[in-house]
Each structure stands twice: as C-alpha cells, then as structure tokens.
Specification:
The protein has about 170 residues and is mainly alpha-helical. The chain contains ten helices and no strands. It folds into four domains: about 10-40, no CATH class; about 50-90; about 95-140, no CATH class; about 145-170. The longest helix is centred in the C-terminal third of the chain and has 18 residues, at about 145-160. The mean pLDDT is about 80.
C-alpha cells in the first residue's frame, strides 16, 4: 500500500480522534513534520510531565542560585539533569570561586535592578572585570542605550590611541 502524505480525509480525522489524537496534532504531524497519514493517525501522542508545576516547586531555590526558568528548563529537558541539580548547580561551578550571597547583599542587588536572574552579571563583574563585591552589587544594570554609548566611546578611544583616522573618532 502506498503511503499518503497530503490529503487528510474526514475519516482520517475520525480515526485519529478515536486513537486520542486531536485535529491539531494530526494536522501538525502531516503538514509540519512530514509524517505519512497512516502513522500520524495511529501513533499515540507522547505525554510528558507538565513543566510549570516542576518550576513552581523549585523556583525559589533556583532564583536564589541565579538560575532562570529557561535555564532550569534546558537543564532538565535538554541536559537531562534532575530537578535538584538543575536548581542548585552554580553557573560558575569549577570555573571561579563560589560566591555566597547574604540576605543584605541580595536586597542591595534588588534595589539596583539586579534581580536573582542578574546575579550572573554581578559574578562576571567580580570574576572577569575584577570589581569589588560592593561595586558589583551597587552598580545598576545598564540599559541597552547606555551599553551602546560605552561601546562607542571605547571604539573611539581604541582608534584614537592607534592613530586610526576613521568615522569612529567622531563624537556623536
């Protein structure tokens, strides 16, 4: 029997529904994934564990450790980590000293728009830029416009120091 790939008949939708496969899933399997219709109407849907309840259970611990929801999800679904490791494993583990944050330091960071999701920025400031912990926590996160301004200033300085006459030397 020749495989069918294009026209899904009303009978196909009915058979799929009897097999627990809804209209959207059947259409997606055939039109988006390129499955043949016979496979699409018979292969059971894969049902995974809903992610939101898992995140809600670990959110407090994960955010305290600077782990975002997206990173937590990636660690579980892509890297196949267990929830505890995904929520507690430091982003910088093995690379730099682990930094423990006190309640007061977290409050300072929050006041400077550095939420738990931005603690990686604070760690980068300390480990890569050599800032003090106090300076890293007390310096607010720059807006994209401020970042662009600093990059432009740095580019102009770089070219001036090397005697390069270019459009980058001109101030805006």
């Amino acid at each position: 029997m020749e495989k069918r790939y294009h026209y899904i008949t009303p009978n196909d939708y009915e058979t799929a529904e009897q097999n627990g496969i809804n209209y959207v899933a059947l259409s997606q399997r055939v039109r988006d994934y390129g499955w043949d219709i016979d496979r699409a109407i018979t292969e059971p849907l894969k049902v995974g564990v809903p992610f939101q309840p898992v995140w809600e259970q670990w959110e407090k611990i994960a955010t305290e450790n600077g782990i975002s929801k997206d990173l937590f999800y990636q660690r579980i679904k892509v890297n196949k980590w267990d929830e505890k490791r995904a929520a507690t494993h430091s982003l910088m583990a093995g690379k730099h000293l682990r930094i423990e944050w006190t309640k007061e330091e977290r409050e300072i960071a929050e006041r400077n728009s550095l939420s738990a999701n931005h603690m990686n920025l604070v760690i980068t400031r300390i480990n890569k830029l050599g800032w003090s912990k106090e300076r890293a926590l007390n310096t607010p996160k720059m807006s994209l416009k401020e970042q662009a301004k600093h990059i432009a200033e740095g580019t102009r300085k770089y070219h001036r120091e090397r005697g390069v006459n270019s459009e980058f030397n001109k101030t805006v």
